[in-house]
């Protein structure tokens, strides 16, 4: 057998398939990092609904919190629509939801009122959140004129984010899960949402920290203490000035 035949024989040997980690059927994460045991004992069933308008890039993040929210609430109480502008033909029933009189958008515009000041004229609300980084959220809002006509609310809270393994832009920023949990607690006048919905996030962060991850300070804190390693852009600089 000549050298060429030897190499041909070697090339025809099938490669060993990659070793796949066992996945949790509920959260679809590897079983060793599954956080399902920290979900509420019984899926919470608020009167209001949560509507997430999610940037496509969020789905690719390993440490996203939207699945925790969706699995922590009763079925169909958290609906997720993906895209960069809304609504699109693929977003079934979204336009009807957005145009419903009890729909409110959680977005810190100048016209937004404190969510605590909502006049409770209806039994429930469709609470719309934009799920993405702050630059992504602003771009999605700008590209979706229908969002501009919604009643807009903002969240006032002194709670610091427990999402300490991801860098937040400012000290007061919360993750999507934490924002929804706090908003539901205020809308429903029940602290169970802020107490139980965020437990999977605590479990995720503890696992990451126990396995080499480090605690992240906000960009605002790092810049103020002159420890931020990058030059900041005009958008972040303007955002930080507006929070002072």
UniProtKB/TrEMBL annotation:
Any one of the GO BP annotations: tRNA processing
Catalysed reactions listed for this entry: a uridine in tRNA + S-adenosyl-L-methionine = a 3-[(3S)-3-amino-3-carboxypropyl]uridine in tRNA + S-methyl-5'-thioadenosine + H(+)
Superkingdom: Eukaryota
Keyword annotations of the record: S-adenosyl-L-methionine, Transferase, tRNA processing
Any one GO molecular function term: tRNA-uridine aminocarboxypropyltransferase activity
Keyword Calcium in record: no
Annotated ranges, domain DTW: 20-213
EC class (word): transferase
This enzyme's EC code(s): 2.5.1.25
InterPro entries: DTW, DTWD2/TAPT
One Pfam family named in its UniProt record: DTW
Family label: Belongs to the TDD superfamily. DTWD2 family.
Record-given protein name: tRNA-uridine aminocarboxypropyltransferase
Origin species: Euphydryas editha
């Amino acid at each position: 057998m000549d050298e060429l035949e030897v190499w041909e024989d070697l090339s025809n040997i099938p490669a060993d398939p990659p070793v796949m980690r066992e996945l949790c059927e509920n959260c679809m994460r590897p079983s060793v990092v599954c956080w399902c045991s920290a979900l509420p004992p019984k899926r919470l069933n608020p009167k209001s609904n949560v509507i997430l308008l999610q940037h496509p890039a969020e789905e690719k993040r390993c440490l996203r919190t939207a699945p925790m929210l969706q699995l922590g609430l009763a079925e169909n109480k958290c609906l997720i629509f993906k895209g960069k502008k809304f609504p699109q033909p693929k977003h079934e029933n979204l336009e009807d939801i957005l145009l419903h009189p009890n729909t409110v958008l959680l977005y810190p515009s100048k016209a937004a009122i404190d969510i605590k000041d909502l006049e409770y004229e209806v039994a429930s609300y469709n609470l719309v959140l934009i799920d993405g980084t702050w630059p992504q959220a602003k771009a999605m809002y700008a590209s979706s004129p229908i969002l501009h006509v919604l009643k807009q609310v903002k969240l006032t809270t002194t709670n610091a984010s427990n999402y300490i393994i991801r860098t937040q832009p400012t000290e007061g920023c919360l993750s999507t899960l934490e924002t929804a949990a706090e908003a539901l607690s205020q809308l429903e006048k029940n602290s169970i949402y802020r107490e139980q919905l965020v437990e999977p996030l605590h479990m995720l962060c503890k696992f990451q920290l126990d396995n080499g991850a480090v605690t992240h300070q906000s960009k605002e804190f790092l810049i103020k203490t002159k420890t931020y390693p990058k030059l900041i852009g005009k958008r972040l600089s303007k955002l930080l000035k507006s929070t002072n």
